[in-house]
Amino acid sequence: MIIARTVAEVRAELRPLRLAGRRIGFVPTMGALHEGHLSLVRAARQACDYVVVSIFVNPLQFGPREDFHTYPRDEPADLAVAGQHRVDMVFSPSVDEMYPDRSTTTVAVGTIGDVLEGEVRPGHFAGVVTVVAKLFNIVEPQVAFFGRKDAQQVAVVRRMVTDLSFDVEIVTCPTVRAPDGLALSSRNSYLSREERTRAAVIQRALGAGERVLRTAGSREEAEKRMWDVLISEEGVDPDYAAAVDPSSFGPPGPHGPILLAVAGRVGPTRLIDNVLVEVPEER
Ligand code: AMP
Q1: Residue 282 pLDDT
Q2: Using CA positions, which residue lies closest to atom 18 of ligand 1?
Q3: Angle (CA) 163 164 166, round 5°
Q4: Measuring CA to CA, which residue among 75, 185, 203, 62 is closest to residue 128?
Q5: What average pLDDT values come out for the chain (283 residues) when binned by 10 residues?
Q6: Mutation test of ligand 1: which of 149, 157, 177, 186 has the most ligand atoms closer than 8 Å to its C-beta?
Q7: Cα–Cα dist 24/4, whole Å
Q8: What Cα–Cα distance (Å) separates residue 200 from each residue in 39, 106, 186, 214?
Q9: 69 is catalytic
Q10: Model pTM?
Q11: How far is 16 from 40, CA to CA, in rounded Å?
């Protein structure tokens, strides 16, 4: 497995492979790899000839009061697990390598980046798409793999790919969960035992919202039900509980699936999750 630290190394390694017609699959991550990340690696391994995983805790997508400095980092463990999963290259650059000369150009997201996560975390999605655009330009993959756990991120990245004509296929993979339903996340390591137990309320809230929609309840009823379940748990401070269109993140239309999305703090730890609900008949 190649461990690349610089843009030049990545390009030197991948250009000949691309010219030889090899299909390059790319999994961008912030490290602290867990089974959720590894499900993306497996999907890439299956679909592609060559698998690149990036590990980069991107300062641009963290707000000033967020956890950039304390975000879990364990590169030796990540490299070991990547090797075990037959990753061909890990790209693990420094912040200076990714943002030399105090770069000032960023990618603007538009209104989809202003709601839900974007409203709670102003500038977050501009930071995400800027780094994803850079990584796509560096790796030039044919396919890139993202997790549905970060559903709004997927929608924002898909928009960027369409709007800016990136020549890359975006594949999304299902959310990997713990046995009690909690979505795996690098941030789960912040949770105390008691908070970890409380965090299961997120899954209960989504389940309750889904039941409302399946029994012909309205979008507003589903949102209220999810919110009520979240606030019923002590020590949980919700940011939002929303039912939206999965592509635009605006109000859902009368047909098609509805995305239920929740976010909030369990103690000091911020967690997000979502579920896609296929509502069969006309609403
Ligand atoms: P992160 O390292 O948190 O930025 O995540 C890197 C990629 O892994 C993103 O595409 C995430 O959506 C995906 N991911 C994170 N957690 C999970 C999970 N529990 N299941 C599936 N994909 C995940």
Answers
A1: 57
A2: 36
A3: 115
A4: 62
A5: 98 97 98 98 98 98 96 98 98 97 92 96 98 98 98 98 98 97 96 96 97 94 98 95 96 92 96 92 57
A6: 149
A7: 16
A8: 22, 37, 16, 21
A9: no
A10: 0.97
A11: 25
Instruction: Give the side-chain half-sphere CA count within 13 A for 110.
Output: 13
User: For ligand 1, is residue 62 a contact (CB within 6 Å)?
Assistant: no
Please give the structure tokens belonging to residue 267: 């103690």
How far is residue 32's CA from residue 25's CA, in Å, rounded to a whole number? 20
Q: What does the longest C-alpha to C-alpha distance in the chain come to?
A: 58
Vertex 261: Cα angle to 257 and 264 (nearest 5): 175
Structure tokens of 24? 């390059």
Q: Is 185 in the pocket of ligand 1 (CB under 6 A)?
A: yes
Alpha-carbon torsion (191, 196, 198, 201), positive or negative: positive
Residues shown for the chain: 283
Q: With b meaning 16 or more CB within 10 Å and e meaning fewer, what string describes 146-169?
A: bbbbbbbbbbbbebbbeeeebebe
Per-residue CA distances from 272 to 6, 78, 138, 175, 215 (Å): 32, 23, 29, 12, 25
Query: SS3 of 220, please?
Result: helix
What is the rounded distance in angstroms from the CA atom of residue 246 to the CA atom of residue 154?
10
Dihedral angle sign, alpha carbons of residues 102, 165, 4, 149: positive
Structure tokens at 3: 């461990």
